[in-house]
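Two folds, back to back.
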Amino acid sequence: MKLRYLLWLLLIPVAFGQYVSAGYNKGSVGAGISVVQGCGKNTSTSTASPSWSASCSQNLASGNTLIVVAAAGSGGTTTISDSLGNVTAAACTFNNGLTLNIYYCSFSITTGGSDTITLNGSFSTFWMTFSLECHNCAGFDAAGTAVNNGASTTWTLPGVTTTHASDLVIGFGGNGSANDTFTAGSGYTIPSGSCGANTAGACGQASGGAQCGFVEYQVVTTATTYTPAATVSGSISGSSQTISFHP
């Protein structure tokens, strides 16, 4: 009997080690930052106060974060709202001194469900807007300095220096005079698929009405400086930005 008892004691740590190594350590489940979905749309308008409204293909999940980025015509001001009332605590940054205005906002999804996001501008022009629903995005980390990209088939976006190891790095930009398409740089992903919020293109890029734009992302594992790139189907100019969020 004593021998059986001793053997049982010896086997417990072995069995527990196999249990944990097989992926059953619940403390590590869901710890990583990730993109749940992306959606985007371009709008060409000549009205005095253009408005952009779109809903993502899937319902938003409570507890996640919605990140909204846009490249729009120069000048004017922009406001953002959503139909579920999540955007009341939004943190928005507007860079209006470039060829195109560069905007980015983020807000916690306190109320999940079918949501419509609306941007209103005080200028008479176009814009390309995209959003990413992020899981385990605890907060904004850093931003590069938004830049104008000269006419080229290769765009180098601003560098962003992260302060956390496992960040979500996001690059985006647009052009207001061409219907070209973008290909993500090495290690980055442009959301694909049929996006219910998009009138032209995939969920992560839009092209049409003499304008085009894109958003790309990468989950990184080291705190350092990241400089995304993208290739373009034609030699065009535009404006771009890089931002990051930490888990």
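---
second:
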Amino acid sequence: MGFLRSIVEHAVYKKGTTNSLLLIGVYVDDLIISGPDNKLIAQFKDQMKKVFSMSDLGLLSYYLGMEVKQEKDMITIYQRAYALKILESCNMAKCNPVDTPMEERMKLTIVVPGSELDVSRYRSVVGSLRYLVNTIPDIAYAVGVASNS
């Protein structure tokens, strides 16, 4: 169909220029179709439907754990449900919010010396937090410290 794969992100494809631009993001069997021309987007969808069995879910509202809110002049991406899921999994659903998630130069240690740390669980939680940094950059420092511990 004439698309070129991005040299920076291999799951993104581009076709056209400025006003006739189409960008396609691909993840397994999901596509995010974006561009300034709705007619061009509709034509692309029609072409795809001729080749593949596909359904059009309309405007993007949820993708890879990220919630998307689209308004006239603004798109907001957030991960509220994902963040709550992480808190619940760590028995912290009722924790108190703070402005600064971690003091500078803080060193992490095991709470009870001699207690056994579940390394797999720790890595899983830190990995989840690293993904959460996409929409909550305020926690990047704390997550970085936890990643290096």
